[in-house]
Amino acid sequence: MIGRLRGTLIHKQPPWLIVDVNGVGYELEAPMSTFYDLPELGREVSLFTHYAQKEDSVSLYGFLREAERRLFRDVQRVSGIGAKIALAVLSGVPVEEFARLVQTGDVTALTRIPGIGKKTAERMVVELRDRAADLAGLGAPTLGSSGVPADPQSEATIALQQLGYKPAEAARMARDATAAGDDAAAIIRKALKSALR
């Protein structure tokens, strides 16, 4: 389960932080990439979250940027990798750099991330290489500082990607369907109508 959490930051000690939301404290585990940019205690914070439930535990993870949450989830799809290593990846290297290392197959550099051995790095390259451009957001629309798309065309592009279109194809469809004054819903409707022809 994924979502957003907005509240007051009341505790931060890596890897844990606590956010107060209307009197309820949520304890989250977060990578160092998030900790570096957290506001001071007592200030409002908005986090992308990932909720994980296993047979014997429930965990909540927090990220300042959607790209970090996406990488956290994608890395765990690699066989033999769990949340601990996914957090280590995010703590050890920026999302864009990780995507570059995977695209170029730089196993040596990947093994410098704590907890990643040669075989794990090789599995990451094999299993994530096709998704590396998407991990870094290459070819995908730019998000504003609030984490929402900067314009209706970008919003439509993200929606089309979520419907299963590849990033480049979604961007082309949205661009071709956009007319002055269109909102995202209008762009999506026109793009899907055009795809059915």
From TrEMBL:
Relate the assembly described in the record: Homotetramer. Forms an RuvA(8)-RuvB(12)-Holliday junction (HJ) complex. HJ DNA is sandwiched between 2 RuvA tetramers; dsDNA enters through RuvA and exits via RuvB. An RuvB hexamer assembles on each DNA strand where it exits the tetramer. Each RuvB hexamer is contacted by two RuvA subunits (via domain III) on 2 adjacent RuvB subunits; this complex drives branch migration. In the full resolvosome a probable DNA-RuvA(4)-RuvB(12)-RuvC(2) complex forms which resolves the HJ.
UniProt region (Domain III), positions on chain:
152-197
Similarity-based family: Belongs to the RuvA family.
Q: What is this protein called?
A: Holliday junction branch migration complex subunit RuvA
Q: Where in the cell is it found?
A: Cytoplasm
Q: Which gene encodes it?
A: ruvA
* InterPro entries hit by this protein: DNA_helicase_Holl-junc_RuvA_I, Hlx-hairpin-Hlx_DNA-bd_motif, NA-bd_OB-fold, RuvA, RuvA_2-like, RuvA_C, RuvA_C_sf
Q: What SUPFAM superfamilies has UniProt attached to this entry?
A: DNA helicase RuvA subunit, C-terminal domain, Nucleic acid-binding proteins, RuvA domain 2-like
HAMAP family documented for this protein:
DNA_HJ_migration_RuvA
Q: Would the keyword DNA-binding turn up in this protein's UniProt record?
A: yes
Q: Which Gene Ontology cellular component terms are annotated? A: cytoplasm; Holliday junction helicase complex; Holliday junction resolvase complex
Tell me, what is one Gene Ontology molecular-function annotation carried by this entry?
hydrolase activity
Task: Report the source organism.
Answer: Lysobacter antibioticus
| Keywords per UniProt | ATP-binding, Cytoplasm, DNA damage, DNA recombination, DNA repair, DNA-binding, Helicase, Hydrolase, Nucleotide-binding
Q: What is known of its domains?
A: Has three domains with a flexible linker between the domains II and III and assumes an 'L' shape. Domain III is highly mobile and contacts RuvB.
